[in-house]
Amino acid sequence: MRFEDEQYVRLYKRDTTTWKMLPWQARCLLPLILRKLDRAGILDLGSDGLEALAVHIEMPLEVVEPGIAALLKRNVLVLREDGVLLWPKFIDGQEAKQSDKARQKAARDRARDVAQAESIGVTLRDGAVTLRDADTTPRDATVTRRHTVSHGVTLSSAQPSSIGRP
């Protein structure tokens, strides 16, 4: 998959009170619906309503009906009379920028993790953990430290070559 060419949506991790109050069917549907909405947070179901939604997200109608009822009741989603399903806070959630305070906290957390790892002899590189004084792996042993002395294969410009001349 070429990630740079793909559209993506944000799925927030925080368990809000609204999320906790939703039945399992609604919590199951919400991420699937999120993937089907357009960039404005809209999914046109037409006159088929919940049956169309069940087809779009590939879930049984028996799961979709109670899940959507809970999402509509809590105003997480809105189902208009013309068959359009709308997520009112979709654009706000997808285009939100992390605050300076949150960004700085994340940077401090990363710096703390690196410092703690180094204090116990662990090096963090690209998310991988490597013991600083670990044994050489077979892959490392095959790397040469220097090349052999170069042989004089290139003709000097001081001595003209007679190769290819009559």
What does the main sheet amount to? 3 strands, antiparallel
User: Which spans of ≥5 residues are poorly predicted at pLDDT below 50?
Assistant: none
Domain tally: 2
Give the total of beta strands. Answer: 5
Distance between the termini: 58 Å
CATH class of the largest domain: Mainly Alpha
Mean pLDDT: 78
Structural class: mainly alpha
CATH superfamily of the largest domain: Winged helix-like DNA-binding domain superfamily/Winged helix DNA-binding domain
Radius of gyration: 30 Å
In the CATH hierarchy, the third-tier topology of the largest domain is known as Arc Repressor Mutant, subunit A
Beta-strand content estimate: 5-15%
Please trace the helix and strand order, writing H or E for each element: HHEHHEEHHEEH
Overall, the morphology is elongated
Query: Can you tell me the CATH architecture of the largest domain?
Result: Orthogonal Bundle
Physical arrangement of strands within the biggest beta sheet? 1-3-2
Helical amount among residues, as a percent range?
40-55%
Question: How would you describe the overall organization of this protein?
Answer:
- Helix 2 packs across helix 4.
- The mean pLDDT is 78.
- It is elongated, with a radius of gyration of 30 Å.
- A hairpin with a 4-residue loop joins strand 2 and strand 3 (84-86).
- It folds into 2 domains: 3-95, Arc Repressor Mutant, subunit A; 100-134, no CATH class.
- The chain contains 7 helices and 5 strands, in the order H-H-E-H-H-E-E-H-H-E-E-H.
- The strands form 2 sheets. Strands 1-3-2 form a 3-stranded antiparallel β-sheet, with no helix packed on it. Strands 4-5 form a two-stranded antiparallel ribbon.
- The chain has 166 residues and is mainly alpha-helical.
